[in-house]
Design a protein that fits this description.
heterodimer, A: mainly alpha, ABC transporter involved in vitamin B12 uptake, BtuC, two-stranded antiparallel ribbon, two-stranded antiparallel sheet, 11 helices, globular, B: mainly alpha, 14 helices, 4 strands, transmembrane (chain B), branched-chain amino acid transmembrane transporter activity (chain B), cell membrane (chain B)
Chain lengths: 313, 328
Amino acid sequence: MGALILQQTINALTVGSIYALIALGYTMVYGVLRLINFAHSELFTAGAFIGLALSGALGVAGHPMGGILVGLITFVVIGLAGVSVEIVAYRPLRRTSRLAPMLSALGMAVVIQNAVMLIGGRRPLIYPSFLPSGVIELFGAIVSYKQITIFAVAVVLMIGLELFVNRTNLGVRIRAVAENAETASLVGINPNTAISLIFFIGPGLGAVAGVLYSSFYGVATFTMGFVIGMKAFTAAILGGIGSIPGAVLGGFLLGIIETFATAWMPVLTGGLIGTEYRDIFAFSVLVLILLFRPAGLLGEHISEETMVYKSDF
Amino acid sequence: MNTSWRGALALLVIPAMVLLIGQFLPTYPLRILDTILLYAILGMGLNIVVGYAGLLDLGYVAFYAIGAYAWALLASGQFGIHLPFWLVLIIGSGIAGFAGILLGIPVLRLRGDYLAIVTLGFGEIIRVLMNNLDGLTNGPQGISRIDAAHIFGFTLETPYDFLWLLVPLMMVVFLFVWRIQASALGTALSAVREDQDAARGCGIDTTRVKLVAFCTSAMIGGAGGVIFAAMQRFVSPESFTFWESLIIVLVIVVGGLGNPFGALLGATLLILIPEMLRAYADYRLLLYGIALVIIILARPHGLISRRYGPSWLMRKCAGGRGGDNAAV
């Protein structure tokens, strides 16, 4: 029993790491632009495919060191793609209603998904792993090196982001723009630089998550971004959108809820609610949390003035 | 309300012409025309919540699905029930309206994007349920062998037959949403859209107003679903993905929020563009996405402004005597 719970916790942390990495991209964009960047989940897919192409080109499948190289290049490529998406599709709409950029993001999501499909093909691709193979036994639970690596990479990236945002000059600019873009521009901060930076880091992290995800499950499909992206977005809201620690907490929490619900619900309900309902646990939890804490778990209390909802759409 | 007979005539002549011309069209364009009308109806329904009340609902497809499954379950061999079309239309939109209230109650406290994401979740929950309640919905295989709709002794089979159902229905929905906008409820809805707190301060029961909006909008979605199932004679969860909700949102945003003409124009564009791109096969959706982004970049507030709604047209037709109509 204890071993089983431990095993599930480990599985939950693996999935949670991936959700958390993607959620960071959603939460940073939302924190600054109040925009649900629907294209983010497709950049996650694009990242996985670029990782696959690089693995072939560099011949590094199965080498963890090669994996680091692939991860870095993918980060930069998708980061630049994210910056271009923002410049092309969101920047011109910054002064319009809030619905327009969101739908433009949807349009971009369609474009990216189909570009990935045209280049990578419709069929699921077998994905070479960049992660070390092998397992260790821990109090009766089996932990693979893959899982440990995913968790470690995610934690390193998240700590790196936290340090970057809180300790560096550029990070201060990002926070200033997130706080209030107009005031920030009054003190000489160019909001566009900060926003471009956000659109570089967020999709970059998402792309690394894409490589990790596909390496772990061994497949990549051009449609995989949607469901994972929705869950990562749920995680971002769960933790309190706009908050970086919130996204991390939300990601791990969602991983835990999903893993345990999938494992225990069929037992508890006598098979009435089976594992096929996995994808709706996330949304059900989201609805419940939002009803009791509309700003998410770590979200700031949103006062009437700070939230721009008065004429939302 | 002394709307001019000339304006009323304009609103009658065009649909009559559509029916007349439809007789000479081949099946393929007729099918597209049907689809456009169906999406225009759905768009007008969703407009009540998104355009009038300013509440972004990304789960509209759920109501559409409920309506479609109502026809699929109550008029097919699935359970051997074969109810008449009108009865199912009422039942389907009734259940959808009830679901609208059920969704409305818990999410009333939420605003903006939170509301959007919860409604999205609701749409997904309904889809997953349809996918898994095998005993009821036959799961992913869907329900086939659905009855043809019989109306006034006619059997609706060809796309042209459905034009006779869709055109009058669209006019009814059109008049309905237009009158809603001009009514006290419409005023309350725009008050909620512009500033909820001020609206509440003025004594508007925002909770009730929002619930009514959710309910009526869901009923129209449900009716659309019943017709969709009668047209397709086959339903499966595949037809009710998040993408479908988005298309309907796009229909009203591209056309112009809160304007029934906008919903018509938006539906026309969003259905026609992919049809015109059919020749490009694999590149079709890519080009569609690019077209969407370009349209939104070019006209972020939609193609037809709220200002040029039916009331404006009525005044124009009445000979430019502005101001004689309270509805603006």
